[in-house]
Amino acid sequence: MIVKERTIPIKIQKIEALLRRIPKSHWKRAEMEADLAKRWAGFRGEQTLDFPLSKLLEKDFMIFHGLRLSNGKHFFQIDTLLLTTYFALVLEVKNYTGTLYFDPLLNQLIQTTPNRKLRDMPIQLNRLASSGWK
């Protein structure tokens, strides 16, 4: 059963509202539009979970989307938490393009995009684990 529904993130709503109000020539508009596109891509990536999760038996699973929790010092967000009487599963969704390589020695994710630029991204769950949340 879905206990907490997935909603459009407030940050997306705020950026869209701001873009409706500022001139097309505003010096920050292109940056805001790029940020909005990334956020929508992330949200759509999270939505791709909805179909496979809909196949689970409602009586056996509790699903929480977009949780914001605290470890006592800091807040953190979980895309989807799946709970059963046997386990808890944290689902973090990424919607990247290109080729991804997980480097276990350097503990990083390397993305090669079609224009051949490399980006390294910290693995998010390690931050969650190092925050002291258990």
Number of strands: 7
What would you report as the Rg, rounded to the nearest angstrom? 18 Å
Unreliable stretches:
none
- Tally of helical segments: 4
Q: Which geometry do the CA atoms define? A: globular
- Distance from first to last alpha carbon: 24 Å
Content of β-strand: 25-35%
Q: In percent, how helical is the residue content? A: 25-40%
| Order of strands, widest sheet | 1-2-3-4
Structural class: alpha+beta
User: The biggest beta sheet, please?
Assistant: 4 strands, mixed
- Give the SSE string: EHHHEEEEEEH
Give the overall pLDDT as a whole number.
86
Question: Which descriptors would you attach to this protein?
Answer:
134 residues, alpha+beta, four-stranded mixed β-sheet, three-stranded antiparallel β-sheet, 4 helices, 7 strands
Please outline what is shown here.
The chain is an alpha+beta fold. Helices cover 32% and strands 30% of the residues.
